[in-house]
Here is the input.
Amino acid sequence: MKPEDTIDFHIRWAWHGIARMYNIEAAKYDTTMSVGQTLLNIDVEGTPSTKLGPKMGMESRSLTRILKSMEEKGLIYKKADTKDKRMVRIFLTEAGIAKREVSKEAVIKLNSAIHEKIGKTNLKTFFKVIKKINHILDEQASKKNGAKQRSN
Here is the structure.
């Protein structure tokens, strides 16, 4: 089987194209796509650090380096939750809010271009298919985790 005959090849190829386009745009503002995506997922009222990874579809530990960099650049700050002192919330600074707006504009611009070129019906089909693929992946992961737990 040739790579271009596989589903994951096309998903990965599209994602790399999107990431490249976002990184080119983000570089104009001295940031990266990863930082932009993270900024877009931090709520105005703050986001619990433990919820950010799952909200983005990432493992929480994968965000550690990004968050540290964002904090050093003054885009975010961390603060203990007012009700539960064990929980840490992540908030945007003024600079973070400004870069978030830039990121939001880039996402809107790409989505508008795709909607215009692909059309509502094709996008509806795409979303239906990609949700099914994600469901299958979740099922596969659950089966593997279940088998792994039984063998331990």
